[in-house]
Specification:
By secondary structure, the chain is an alpha/beta fold. It has a single domain, classed as 3-Layer(aba) Sandwich (Rossmann fold), CATH 3.40.50.1000. The protein is 39% helix and 16% strand. The protein is built from 7 helices and 8 strands; from the N terminus they run βαββαβαβαβαβαβα. The strands form 2 sheets. The chain has a 6-stranded parallel beta sheet with strand order 5-4-1-6-7-8, with helices on both faces. Helix 3 links the parallel strand 4 and strand 5. Helix 2 runs parallel beside helix 7. The chain is globular. The relative contact order is 0.23.
């Protein structure tokens, strides 16, 4: 496992979408169209984290266009329909010249474990799977889709000695 860093040393944050940015539920109408719920508080926090100079990206196994639309609105780089998250994480870090030790990965489910164990810091929502909570360095006080990134933003500000705005 990578040597763990503090939040103050993080240069990039990787988010899983479902269960972190959403509440892990999907609503489906009679025509099969899917809907998901995102927190506006996270949207605000994502823009503030970007202003701190921290890269952010979503890596998701889902191919749902909802993920693409939300990330586009938030100006988040996104890779969706990813079958091997670890390979994509390594490629992203290589392309952006960011060491894995300077990455924080936020996940909630078992398919995030390999990535979480390979980065400098890993975190999760309070309602993540027990196996994920056990390996996490940072656990939000909030559930997925209910402001996890806003919670992280506050802790990032504190770790860097700046006031949240």
């Amino acid at each position: 496992m990578a040597q763990h860093q503090s939040l103050a040393n993080i240069e990039a944050i990787v988010y899983d979408c479902d269960g972190v940015l959403t509440d892990n539920r999907v609503l489906v109408d009679e025509d099969g169209k899917e809907y998901a719920s995102f927190s506006r508080a996270d949207g605000f926090a994502i823009s503030r984290i970007s202003e701190m100079g921290i890269r952010q990206v979503v890596i998701s196994t889902e191919s749902n266009p909802i993920v693409l639309k939300r990330c586009q609105k938030l100006k988040l780089e996104v890779y969706n329909d990813v079958s091997d998250k670890m390979t994509m994480l390594e490629r992203y870090c290589r392309d952006k010249d960011v060491a894995l030790e300077r990455v924080m990965y936020l996940g909630n489910d078992l398919n995030d474990i390999v990535c979480m164990k390979s980065v400098g810091l890993c975190g999760c929502p309070s309602d993540a799977e027990i196996e994920i909570r056990r390996i996490s360095d940072w656990i939000s006080s909030r559930k997925g889709g209910e402001g996890v990134v806003r919670d992280l933003y506050r802790d990032l500000c504190e770790s860097r000695g700046i006031e949240c705005q």
